[in-house]
Amino acid sequence: MKSSPVLSHQENDPGSPEVGEPDFLVVGKLGRPHGVSGEILMEVYTDFPERLQPGVMLFLGPQHQPLKLTKRRPHSRGMLVAFEGYHDRDTIGELRTQLVHVPAADRPPLEEGEYYYHQLLGMQVFDEAEKPLGRVSRILETGANDVYVVRDQSGSELLIPAIESVILDIDLEHQEIRVHLLPGLLPEE
Question: Residue 143 belongs to what H/E stretch?
Answer without folding.
Answer: none
